[in-house]
Amino acid sequence: MKRGLFISKCGGAVSGALDVEQLGRNYASLEAVRIVEDFYEPADLASLLDDVAVKHLEGVVLAGDSPLSFSDTRAGDQILGYLGARGVDRNRIQIVNLKNMVVKPHKASREALLEKARLLIDVGLAKVAESRPVAEVEVAPRKAVAVVGGTGAALAVALHLVDEGYRVHLLHKGPQLALPAQSAGLLRPLLTAVVRNERVKVHPDASLVDLSGYSGDYLLKVTSGGGPFELRLGAIVVATDRDTAQARELQAVCHVDLDEGGVVASKDEATLRSNTQERGIFVVASSKQPGDVSASLLAADAAAASVINLLNRSEITHRHTVSEVDTKLCGGCGVCVKTCMFHAVTLQGDPPVSHIDPRRCRGCGNCVTACPSAARDLVACPTSYLESAVDILARFSHAERGRKILLIACSGCGYRGLDKAAEAGLTWPVGIMPLQVVCGGQLDTRIIMQAFVRGFDGVIMLVCGEGCCHNIIGNVDLERRVNLLREVLASRGIDHERMHIVSTCSRKGTDCVESINEFYQQFGNKSLNNSTVMLGGSVGARP
Length: 543
Fold this sequence. Notes:
The chain is α/β, with parallel strands linked by helices. It has 4 domains: 1-133, Rossmann fold; 144-316, FAD/NAD(P)-binding domain; 320-378, 2-Layer Sandwich (Alpha-Beta Plaits), CATH 3.30.70; 380-543, Rossmann fold, CATH 3.40.50. It has 17 helices and 24 strands. The protein starts with a strand and ends with a strand. The model is unreliable at 529-543 (pLDDT under 50).
């Protein structure tokens, strides 16, 4: 595979602490290596894309900025789109976070930072090499939208959308729409315009039951005063103000984020206040001041514009980053069916084998770890890659007191929380080596054992807190497996306290660092010389 490495100085944030020229020289054997000032500088981006096209690169590592800068900032994902247009599969684009996983959080020597940066790039290159192309599906977006809430903002969104020719289903609690007394005079014309519009269907006493599909083509199951029904939709807008009870219901069905106050949260408050982690679900950012009609209506305008921007295109492309099945290994036991919280797995055929519904599968990986015959894997994060990553990160030789910790962080809250902590200026020891996984539910305990075999002194699993898991029970299933592993560790002479789960919330971010630092410090007074691990015929002893 032809691979390229592109290193960003990040406006001096990375190059001020790392010798990026020396870092780049380690990869002279790659088809392309280029150091730029910033990936978002037009000239730098043009040179990067020229290298991709001219050298026919099949895999790309972008080292410098945080992955969140590509996903959670307005138009940040355009770079990935440009690479895709030049033939690079999205599953073979890896972003290595030098800024927030190497430079900002560590007070260490330049040699230590340089070695850590190199190892993280090696992990990125391994991910590119071991990932397969991802199947894509084109969806013609439906011109129907569900607006959840009975607020003035919900009415404003609905009216915007019907004016653009969309059909709107207004789902609200209670038997009828009721305006707050302090703003009834301002909003009554809006209410009348909505309820009398023939393109609006109002559903009282509505509760969301189930959601499947993609942005542009959802199937939403609802119950209301008139009984259960189904809606075919292009998008969903949440405009429930600060209703925390309804927010919990929405989280269970739509898997949206909640902020520290229990309210449905946007992807990024600065630049994407209407967007959520789910591409076709939008939120009206609620005002912190109750009764602030002006702010509420402005937020409604922004949400409606975001919906229109998505659904007014001719087609939407979706990537199938799902769990996959090796039918030669599948024994048809049905464990995956029982494990999947999204009802994405069925047994089909004779003899029966596991089948994945891509409209339901969220690629969390819980079924991968549950499969007794190792017949499953994640397209977006293969097990072989995780094994390679552990081996690579174990090579780090500049840890304080020689102590290394493998920190496995889920994409939902764990990695986001750590990234936000670095942005906030918090620090942790350089010997803590990060490895991002899709979900805690994906983490097989064999990976933890492998870490001890390869010489890690401890393993931290940084996952979503209670009620925050993007995949409902990924964090709970991980804790169950880890508790069972503690007995295995004891039989191998490993102190179970060398393995620790830290829960966090992506909205808080900084709360996890104190726990991480405490865990690291506990090794200061411990002797680990008796720790010998055997796994699959391999023996690993403390150096």
